[in-house]
Amino acid sequence: MSKTYCTAPFVHMNIANDGNVTPCCTSTRSFGNSKRQSLSDIWSGDQMEQFREEILGGKQVEGCEICYQLEDSGADSFRLRWNRSFILKYIQDPKLRSDTPLCIHVHFSNICNLKCRMCWHGSSSSWFNDAKKLNLTVSDKALITSDGAQRMVDQLDPFIDKAVEFYFAGGEPLMMHQHYELLQRLIDRGRTDAIIGYNSNMTLLHLKDWDVIELWKQFKSVNVAISIDEVDERTPYLREGSDFETIRNNAMRIKREAPNVYIRVSPTITLLNIFNITNLLKRIVSEGICRYEDITLNIVQEPKYYNIRLLPLAHKKEIDRRVAAFIKAENLPALMIKWLKDVTSYMNAEDWSHRLGEFYEFNQKIDSIRSESFVDVFSNESYMLELFELASQQSEAVT
Ligand SMILES: C[S@@+](CC[C@H](N)C(=O)[O-])C[C@H]1O[C@@H](n2cnc3c(N)ncnc32)[C@H](O)[C@@H]1O
Ligand code: SF4
C-alpha cells in the first residue's frame, strides 16, 4: 500500500451540513449534493470513482492537504486513523469499495445553540448574527440543512442494513430531530448493533419528547466525544452559550444511566486554551468525566488567527515547559503523552508569529460584538496578557 493511500472513500461517506458529500470531514473534495442527487447515486457515481482511482494512483491527491500537513509535522492524521480503523477489520481488499458505505458521517444541519469562537456560521446557526456583522455568513439564512426534496433520513435508508457505524456531528447533533428519527429507524429495523458515534457540546440531552439516553440504552455501542475546551468561567468565552457545570452534569447522567455509552473528551486546541491545557486535562479526569486514555486532542488549523503556530517563540517555550512538567508529574498513559507531543510538535513546526496581529483584530471584533473582554477573562494568566499586548502592538504597526 502506498504512503498516501486512504481507505475513507472505499468505506465511508461524509455528508456536510449543506448536503455536500465528501470523502471525509477534513477533505475539501466534493462528489455531489444530497439536495440534488441520491446518496446511493453519489456513492457509485463517476466523481467518487475517479477519486478512488486517484487514491490508488499512489500520489498525494487534491483536497486532502490537511492530512498531509499534519503528517509532515509528525502528528497523527485522519487518513492514518481511517486506515487503522477499517483495513482488514471490515474490508479485506483495500482497493475495492463496499456496495454501500459502511461508515456514514452525517451532519443533518448547522443547528446549534452555541457560537464557539473558533467555529463559524457553516457549523452553527447561532453564529449567524455575529457572522453578519463580520461579513462572514455562508448563506442568507441562519439554518443550513442537508435535507432536500427527499428527506435525509429516507436517503440514508438503503444504507441501514449494511452500515457498521453512523456518526453524527453538526451543528449540535443532539438538537437535530432527523438524528432522533434515524435512531428510531435503526431500532425499528433491528440494527441496534450498529455503532453510533457523536461529537457533541453536551449542553442538552433532550429534544421535544425524545430523551437521547433512553434511545442510547437500546444500542450495543455508543461513542460520545464531548467537546470541552476550558473550565469554569473561561468556558463561555471560548464556547459561548455553554457552561462547565451543565456539561459535567450531563456527562455524569450518561455514566449513571447508560453504561453502554463510551465517553471521550475531545478538547479543540487553539491559541486561547493551549496555555491551560494541562489544567484542563487534569480537571476532566479529576471530575470523573473520563480517563486520560479517553482524551483526544483536536488541533485547530483554520481559522489561522486561532492557530497555535502564531505564538511567539518565548510563549511556545513556556508551553513546552508546562507540558513537560505535566508529563513528568502525572502518571500519564502513552497515548496521552503522544497527543501532547503531537500538539507541541505541530505548534513548533512553523513560526507564524508575524501573523499575531490577525488574532488580535478578529478576537477584538468578537469581543466588541459580544461585549466580552479577553483581558478580563485571562486576567490571572500573565502569558496571555503579554500575548495580547504583543498582538495589539503588531496590529497597530500594520495599520
Ligand atoms: C463542529 S463541532 C460539531 C459537534 C458539536 N457541536 C461539538 O461542538 O462537539 C465538531 C468538533 O469540531 C470542533 N471545532 C470547532 N471549530 C473548529 C475548527 N475551526 N477547527 C477544528 N475543529 C473545530 C469542535 O470543538 C468540536 O469538537
Ligand atoms: S458547539 Fe460545535 S457546532 Fe456549535 S458552535 Fe461550538 S463547535 Fe460549532
UniProtKB/TrEMBL annotation:
Gene Ontology molecular function: catalytic activity; iron-sulfur cluster binding; metal ion binding
Family annotation (PANTHER family): MOLYBDENUM COFACTOR BIOSYNTHESIS PROTEIN A-RELATED (PTHR11228:SF35), RADICAL SAM DOMAIN PROTEIN (PTHR11228)
Keyword Zinc: no
Organismal lineage: Bacteria, Pseudomonadati, Pseudomonadota, Gammaproteobacteria, Cellvibrionales
Protein name: Radical SAM domain protein
Signal peptide: none
Keywords associated with the record: Iron, Iron-sulfur, Metal-binding, S-adenosyl-L-methionine
Cofactor: [4Fe-4S] cluster
Entry keyword annotation includes Metal-binding: yes
Domain annotation Radical SAM core: ranges: 98-341
InterPro entries for the chain: 4Fe4S-binding_SPASM_dom, Aldolase_TIM, Radical_SAM_PqqE_MftC-like, rSAM, rSAM_sf
